[in-house]
Amino acid sequence: MADEQAQAEPGPRPILPILKLQPKPHLEGVKCGSCGALFLDVKRVACSKCGTPGKLTPVPLSDKGKVWVFSVVHQSFPGIKTPYVTAIVDLPEGISVKSNLVDVDPEELQKNPQKAFGMPVELVVNPVAKDRQGNEVMAFQFRPSKN
Ligand SMILES: [Zn+2]
């Protein structure tokens, strides 16, 4: 049954390696075991702060953050609905993530940008497509935090 071992289990797939779906959807970074620096890029082989190779271990990141900056996008690729809001979200771990904001009114944010800066947001994960095997492809966005 080599085929079964080579093929991953059927089921949802994260759109990016930093998105983990189990045990519940979260973003994953790596932490340097030498200096403690955190990075969002899970494929990194050495710490870019202290240069130590091979000491980076995965760490789960908070699903809550704050909007640092945002931009309302009015033109995009064909098939992408506009306007939408793209943002850089600061996580409490000191890492910034670029993502889209959902459950917000782009026009309202453009009129009152001060409402968006520092706004508490939380991670949401939704299916956006299916891969060739029919597995759902999951993407992440942030929405205004409920608490
Ligand atoms: Zn380091």
Description of the structure:
7% of the residues lie in helices and 41% in strands. The strands form 2 sheets. The protein has a 6-stranded mixed sheet. Strands 2, 3, 4 and 5 form a 4-stranded antiparallel sheet that branches. With 147 residues, it is mainly beta. The radius of gyration is 18 Å and the shape is globular. The protein is built from 2 helices and 10 strands, in the order H-E-E-E-E-E-E-E-E-H-E-E. The protein has helices at 2-6, 106-111; strands spanning 13-14, 19-20, 26-32, 38-39, 56-60, 64-73, 84-90, 96-101, 120-130, 136-144. It has one domain (11-144). A hairpin with a 5-residue loop joins strand 7 and strand 8. The structure holds zinc ion. The site of zinc ion has 8 residues, from loops.
Please tally the helical runs, counting DSSP H or I stretches of 4 or more residues.
2
Low-confidence stretches: 1-6
The side-by-side strand order for the widest beta sheet comes to: 1-10-9-6-7-8
Number of domains: 1
Whole-number radius of gyration? 18 Å
Class inferred from helices and paired strands: mainly beta
Distinct ligands: zinc ion
The backbone outline, from C-alpha atoms, is: globular
Strand proportion: 35-45%
Helix coverage percent: under 10%
Q: How many runs of DSSP E, i.e. beta strands?
A: 10
How far is the first residue's CA from the last residue's CA? 48 Å
Q: Averaged pLDDT, please?
A: 91
- Main sheet: strands, sense, barrel: 6 strands, mixed
What quaternary form is this? single chain
